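Note to self: the last two entries modelled the partners one at a time, which told us nothing about the interface. This time every component goes in together.
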Amino acid sequence: GAVVSQHPSRVICKSGTSVKIECRSLDFQATTMFWYRQFPKQSLMLMATSNEGSKATYEQGVEKDKFLINHASLTLSTLTVTSAHPEDSSFYICSASVGPSTDTQYFGPGTRLTVL
Amino acid sequence: AQKVTQAQTEISVVEKEDVTLDCVYETRDTTYYLFWYKQPPSGELVFLIRRNSFDEQNEISGRYSWNFQKSTSSFNFTITASQVVDSAVYFCALRRTQGAQKLVFGQGTRLTINP
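The predicted structure of the combined assembly is written out below.
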């Protein structure tokens, strides 16, 4: 149980285009989902916390208008990188909590974004 | 503020050796959660353990064991009789029990097990 999927696993896009990444909880309902960013050989940095049916809470320094997060259902959250630039190239990982009172986050396999 | 420090950036050992990964944390909270995650080359983070701050009992799971010492704010992870498949980056993380569920990660330790 507690499986989280991400799609796509890899994406290459041209500078200026937008890219959507999906995060799904496959066998449980996730009230809360999280989006992280990881640069090569570095740790994970939380970008935003997404609660179903409400606006995401962004961490300091993360541009809301650039990284659009939608959590429309209890099993799906999406991250859209708008007007992507090469510096947005990174590994994006989502995670989900099994329930509002549960404390373990289960992570998706990640999406490697390369912006040319 | 919360902080997790994994001072060992990289560790390399020969297969079958025991290896300990250190984790030191800082928090002003009296209750909190500690986690270890494994990130193999594929990139996916694999949950290994969660420890509540009020439970200082050490835990063993097969070749893995965890030593939680609140007095020194440490939550170390030991792999006994290491195997090549243990090669990965290991992250220690901290989370508050109240409020936001955000995880604060350490910088990670890259563990390489050589045959």
